[in-house]
Amino acid sequence: QSVLTQPPSMSAAPGQRVTISCSGSNSNIGRNYVSWYQQVPGRAPKLLIYDKNKRPSGIPDRFSGSKSGTSATLDITGLLTGDEAEYYCETWDISLGAVVFGEGTKLTVL
Amino acid sequence: EVQLVESGGGVVEPGRSLRLSCAASGFTFDDYAMHWVRQAPGKGLEWVSGISWDSRSTAYGDFVKGRFTISRDNAKTSLYLEMSSLRPEDTAFYYCAKAEMVASTFFDHWGQGALVTVSS
């Protein structure tokens, strides 16, 4: 069981907006930036968001991240069928001295 | 273009050892920390270990419990993971990933993964 809690699944229609949550504590999200990754089945994860809402080259601005206290969110606007994937949050936990991942949220674009 | 290519995966009996390698190219290898992240089939991501650019700092997930050793050879631009006393629950895809640091970091490039199956 992960120290970062994500909803197991979410669904939305193409064109809509979805917000994926990641809940942690003062030893992880409360002290560090949160990164977000997208993983399509059979492929390696891909970095979407890092530091304070930065996006790697090639990631569209439909993806954005935010943090408040011990929770973080990933917003995806203008959903495309190609956004259907598993999404993971990640940060450093200072108490564990370890990288921690959320358990993942499976996004279905209906 | 950054490329990370894992090798060394395969089927191994419980209690045995296995060494994974990750060949890196397309970036200045010794400017970056490197990590291993694993994913059991159908499960989520689990961080395994990280190593600083100069090998002076390493960190491991709690489940490793002294069984795995991460190392790197900057001259060969390669990352390694020596795994011993393997258990069936270590069965997973093992990804190498590039990062800025060992702690408080993010993974901007990932390899394609190497499958390790621990089974008798």
Protein described:
The complex is a heterodimer of chains A (110) and B (120). Chain A is built from no helices and nine strands. With 110 residues, chain A is mostly beta strands. In chain A, the strands form two sheets. In chain A, strands 1, 3, 4, 7, 8 and 9 form a six-stranded mixed β-sheet that branches. A three-stranded antiparallel β-sheet of chain A has the order 2-6-5, with no helix packed on it. Chain B is an all-beta fold and 120 residues long. The model of chain B has no long low-confidence stretch (mean pLDDT 96). Chains A and B meet through strand 3, strand 7 and strand 8 of A and strand 5 and strand 10 of B.
What is the secondary structure topology, with strand pairs?
The complex is a heterodimer of chains A (110) and B (120).
Chain A: E1 9-12, E2 18-23, E3 35-39, E4 46-49, E5 63-68, E6 71-76, E7 85-93, E8 98-101, E9 105-109
Parallel strand pairs in A: 1-9
Antiparallel strand pairs in A: 2-6, 3-4, 3-7, 5-6, 7-8, 7-9
Chain B: E1 3-7, E2 10-12, E3 18-25, E4 33-39, E5 45-51, E6 58-60, E7 68-73, E8 78-83, E9 92-99, E10 107-110, E11 114-118
Parallel strand pairs in B: 2-11
Antiparallel strand pairs in B: 1-3, 3-8, 4-5, 4-9, 5-6, 7-8, 9-10, 9-11
Overview in brief:
The complex is a heterodimer of chains A (110) and B (120). Chain A is mainly β. Helices cover 0% and strands 45% of the residues of chain A.
